[in-house]
Design a protein that fits this description.
The protein has one domain. It is about 70% helix and about 5% strand. It has eleven helices and four strands; from the N terminus they run H-H-H-H-H-H-H-H-H-H-E-E-E-E-H. The strands form two sheets. It has a two-stranded antiparallel sheet. Strand 2 and strand 3 form a beta hairpin. It is globular and about 55 Å long. The protein starts with a helix and ends with a helix.
């Protein structure tokens, strides 16, 4: 769709913003309205709501790619590890070292957990399944039209801004849960003392400090190097940290799912009993 609606580089910025706003709206709003009407007409709407949320919460392909990276690095297959890493992150991976691939994979898995799992749970509980679906589609559009792709800096700005605002509460909820299952005091201190003030750097600082290793740093997107601040612990990532990080995220998933189920049960009893 971007190939059809994205203006030329010579067009004014306003045209890029308009096209970048109307494109996602035309994709998301009709689908959301259709599903909302179908659920309203259904005899058992809770069944379809549960089906939607279970579908949205599945980011198993990201975890699968992560496991493939771990397996490839364990077998000293650097090229294969880079190829698998490239399948679930936007950055260039072909020039990364073994440690670079491991660190980038940990960062990508953590951020996808916060955005795709915690964010969807937040919007499902706060508003409902249709809003959670819209949130997931906005995230998908924002990632497909990545602002660091050549020619997408202006066109992708509306979707990027909306996705950042929408993912904020879920990301904060998620990093709290992650901190609880790792090292809450160290993570909290690192979150507030992070040298970089953007939310992503604070989240990475909290997780890296809780796990004891350093994350962040320079990253290459489409051949252009972006110099991000290194945050987190005092040492470099080790291969074993990939397993420890994966287990920490799994513990956070279980804890958040349990707390959410308990909250929904309490709400159900309050309303219907």
């Amino acid at each position: 769709m971007a190939a059809k609606v994205r203006p030329a580089k010579t067009d004014p910025a306003t045209q890029h913003y308009i096209s970048g706003s109307l494109g996602p709206a035309l994709l998301i709003i009709p689908l959301a309205l259709l599903l909302a009407n179908l659920i309203a007409l259904a005899e058992y709407p809770w069944f379809f709501e549960a089906l939607i949320i279970l579908t949205l919460l599945d980011f198993g392909h990201d975890r699968t790619h992560y496991k493939h990276v771990v397996k490839a690095l364990a077998g000293n297959k650097k090229v294969l590890a880079r190829d698998h890493a490239a399948k679930f992150m936007a950055r260039d991976t072909q020039r990364l070292s073994d440690i670079g691939v491991a660190k980038a994979s940990i960062e990508a898995l953590l951020l996808r957990f916060l955005i795709l799992y915690c964010g969807i749970i937040f919007w499902f509980v706060a508003v409902g399944p249709i809003t959670a679906l819209c949130y997931r589609l906005v995230i998908a559009v924002s990632w497909q039209w990545h602002y660091k792709r050549p020619g997408f800096s202006l066109f992708a700005k509306p979707a990027r801004l909306l996705s950042k605002l929408a993912s904020l509460p879920g990301a904060l909820l998620g990093i709290i849960v992650v901190a609880l299952v790792t090292n809450p005091f160290t993570a909290t201190a690192a979150f507030w003392r992070a040298p970089a003030r953007d939310l992503t750097s604070r989240i990475l600082a909290a997780f890296g400090a809780a796990m004891g290793f350093r994350v962040g740093g320079p990253a290459i997107y489409h051949g252009i190097k972006y110099r991000h601040t290194r945050v987190g612990g005092n040492r470099e990532v080790r291969f074993s940290d990939m397993t420890y990080s994966y287990r920490a995220i799994l513990r956070a998933m279980v804890l958040l799912a349990s707390l959410t189920s308990l909250l929904l049960l309490i709400l159900w009893k309050t309303v219907y009993v």
